[in-house]
Amino acid sequence: MNFFEMAKEIQDELISIRRDFHMYPELDFDLKRTVGQIKEVLEKEGIEYIETSKNGICGIIRGTGERTIAIRADMDALPMDEKRNCEYSSKIEGRMHACGHDVHTTVLLGVAKVLNKIKDKLNGNVKLLFEPAEETTGGAIHMIQEEVLENPKVDAVIGLHVEPNIQVGKIGIKRDVVNAASNPFNIKIMGKGGHGAYPHSTIDPIAISANVITAIQSIVSREIQPTNPAVITIGSIHGGTTQNIIPDEVKISGIIRTMTLEDREYTKRRIVEVTKGIVESMRGSCEIDIQESYPCLYNDDTMVDILKNSAQNTLGSENIVMLQKPTMGVESFAYFSLQIPSVFYYLGTGNKEKDTMHPLHSSFFDVDEECIPVGVAVNCETVINFLNNVNNG
Prior knowledge:
This protein is of the alpha/beta class. The chain has ten helices and 16 strands. The chain has an eight-stranded mixed β-sheet. Strands 10-12-8-13 form a four-stranded antiparallel β-sheet, with helices on one face.
């Protein structure tokens, strides 16, 4: 069964679907049009589905066996203007598919079309997970809470992301940790305001903040094992109104990125300890809010092997790039990877001649659409190998 040829047969249709998504991007959970287009395709193919997670969709293709594998695609765009001028540029001001979620959704619809035609050959079921709000709070956690991984119980999940740094026609795979965990934080430091000429009568929150910012940077450089990637970034600091007034408070916002659960918990704890220690020693007070965002994304070794072997059969071993380093970016697919064996890979979209080398989240971002049948074929081959090879159980 040649899935690449089957995907090429519907390539023009899939490109048309992708360009429609690209022209009419939607944000967060507000995906009414996008979801409507997905439903239309599923209904035309006779694929059953349920609505979930505030505009998420869970479709299912029922085969003849008991095992179930899921494939996830995110649907939302970004709140930014597109500067690339082409026939399918965004028609919605201030919105753009600059992260390739239009491609992810299209690939999953292509998989749905191909596998639905051969469902009698599937020794199990395939769930199609269309996730909202990946760029914000993540729809995955809501989908899991609403039991999309149950009835029938999902045994494994596949995810992908477009990657302009990988040449079109190739894919990238990494073992173990793929993406970092994220913890946004806010710190409010309170002092006692007053005249800038009489600092002794004040408790200066700006001076305190300067010490806090410098000190918490040493958590990564001096307390985290040097071989473990970690980042603490201060992205915002606000306090004061003019040169000769010491303000009452300063607000600091930032982000923590870590690669292990141990480093994540340690860094959160130390930010609190270091901040409180400095603030109190300088006579101030503080409020610290460290939020729980996306966890680390882990690839299961067995699932990596199945996908790698499937991709080699489909694309050839020369088109498989084994990635050595994780990325400090985050991915809501991580919530699925914590629940069941998962594999997340990168779909090459780069092509200098077609000017598709611009980075993700760039206002000039685009893909070489030859990537679409590649993603469809790799996913289909992986599904077949997982469901129909008893050695994978």
